[in-house]
Design a protein that fits this description.
Layout lengths: L2 E5 L15 E3 L7 E5 L4 E5 L5 E5 L3 H12 L3 E2 L6 E2 L4 E5 L5
Parallel strand pairs: 1-8
Antiparallel strand pairs: 1-2, 3-4, 4-5, 5-7, 6-8
Amino acid sequence: MSATIGVVPLPDRSGVSLSAISLRHIQCGQLLTMRHGTLSEQTTLHCPCGLEVAVPLNGHAETQIKKAAIGAIPFELELGTYSSNQGEVSLVVRKGNG
């Protein structure tokens, strides 16, 4: 099983942080919440439907999500740069506010 995450393009490209980006689980339409683990050094994206994606802080997957938000280019996260309870994750850039 794979999951698709919608990334809302950011209007301002300065000071891009993961917490400033709106993400939506396309399959169920819910917004993802983010939890930053201080001990685990990762951000976990949670969906009410149960999807979880763990992204290492300052890692390649986080950089790809930021690039999608500022560059509006959809792509799949590279395997091994994140972990998910639903297999592969792809990013799709969506217009609008989430």
